[in-house]
Design goal:
This protein is an alpha/beta fold. Helices cover 39% and strands 18% of the residues. The protein contains eleven helices and 14 strands. The relative contact order is 0.14. Bound molecules: nicotinamide-adenine-dinucleotide. The site of nicotinamide-adenine-dinucleotide has 29 residues, from helix 1, strand 2, helix 4 and strand 5.
Length: 325
């Protein structure tokens, strides 16, 4: 199989590279290295089945030929992370909307129909109040427009493009709403909580919880994520669908800080920082973000293999051994 991965030097993208290369597939990656790292795929640089192009997917001249070549496309490239979303809201809209629009237009024009998975996000559920978000729930964008919501707006627009190209043009597209995904190579630089906690615990610095820490999240190990994505791509019934992808075990951020401290046997203190201080502006956080996974289980039959404690242990061990792979 020939697999094109946009954003393949990033966190989830590079694990998809590993997954497909390990299966003997041919993999092509396009990434502008804005948040991704070439080190994440460097172990394949001499492999003839692997090809990397450093380019912005919005303008990359080879996108037509790459799309025509591919049997499957994972569209992972996007401007991500709370810090970047707040710092450059226009870039979020430009990159995230235009890249997806261009990719699907070119796929349609190519005349062949590669299987396409588009990365969306649980952010589209906004401040919804349901205990576990379902794909049939309303998408919520705050009425008082705030640049923080541009990311969710861009992801809703990606889903809308995906649905429309699937329905009107017959392209085999599935949009996946990732809930918090964690694992090796995830960077803490752009606002992701777990890598930051691990770094702080291992270096015996205070573990900094933003807000009161009572907000909760559900974390899915990226090794589970990529296997589940492959199953979704292989499942014809997921074409034209939007599917939650994650793990539904919920934990508060306070408990996450305690768990990291315990697993790392760390002397770090746990401190709380107001959102304004953490993000430099008033910030609306979301209290709970847990997926309803009925559709995910029905379509994939997947059973998660990694519990959060195991993921944290793995990340602590890697940090101590200074390994990123
Ligand atoms: N990690 C999560 O928990 C999570 C949650 C929800 C949604 N997502 C979505 O999943 C996808 C992957 O996220 P990730 O966590 O791996 O982030 P990431 O930042 O590690 O990966 C994104 C990659 O896209 C690349 N990129 C950005 N703009 C580009 C452009 N214009 N052209 C080419 N490459 C470009 C970056 O350099 C990076 O390698 C993103 O679309 C993100 O919105 C992730």
């Amino acid at each position: 199989m020939k697999v094109l991965i946009t954003g393949g030097c990033g966190f989830i993208g590079s694990h998809l590279v590993d997954y497909h290369m390990n299966k003997g597939h041919s993999v092509r990656v396009v990434d502008d290295l804005s948040t991704g790292r070439i080190e994440n795929v460097a172990h394949f640089k001499d492999n003839p089945k692997f090809r990397f192009d450093e380019a912005d997917i919005v303008t990359w001249p080879d996108l037509e030929s790459a799309v025509s070549w591919a049997d499957r496309i994972y569209h992972m490239a996007a401007v991500v992370g709370v810090y970047r979303v707040i710092a450059d809201p226009i870039q979020v809209l430009n990159t995230n909307i235009l890249s997806c629009e261009r990719l699907l237009r070119i796929a349609d024009q190519s005349g062949h129909k590669p299987r396409i998975l588009i990365a969306s996000s649980s952010e589209v559920y906004g401040q919804g109040l349901t205990a576990a978000f379902s794909e049939t729930d309303d998408v919520l964008i705050e009425p008082a427009a705030h640049s923080r919501w541009n990311y969710a707006i861009s992801k809703v627009s990606n889903e809308a493009f995906g649905l429309s190209y699937a329905q009107n043009k017959g392209l085999p597209i599935t949009s996946v709403r990732f809930f918090n995904t964690v694992g090796s190579r995830q960077s803490g630089r752009y606002g992701m909580v777990l890598p930051r906690f691990i770094e702080q615990a291992v270096s015996a610095k205070p573990i900094t919880v933003y807000g009161d820490g009572q907000q909760s999240r559900s974390f899915c190990d990226v090794r589970d994520t990529v296997e589940a994505l492959d199953r979704l791509a292989n499942q014809a019934a997921s074409v034209g669908e939007i599917v939650n992808v994650g793990n539904d075990t919920e934990i508060s951020i306070n408990s996450l800080a305690e768990l990291v401290k315990e697993i790392a046997h760390s002397d770090s203190s746990i401190t709380h920082i107001p959102y304004e201080e953490a993000y430099g502006e008033v910030f609306v956080d979301i209290q709970r973000r847990k997926p309803n996974l009925e559709k995910f289980y029905r379509l994939t039959g997947y059973q998660h293999r990694w519990a959060l404690k195991e993921t944290i242990q793995d990340l602590v061990d890697r940090k101590r051994a200074n390994k990123t792979k």
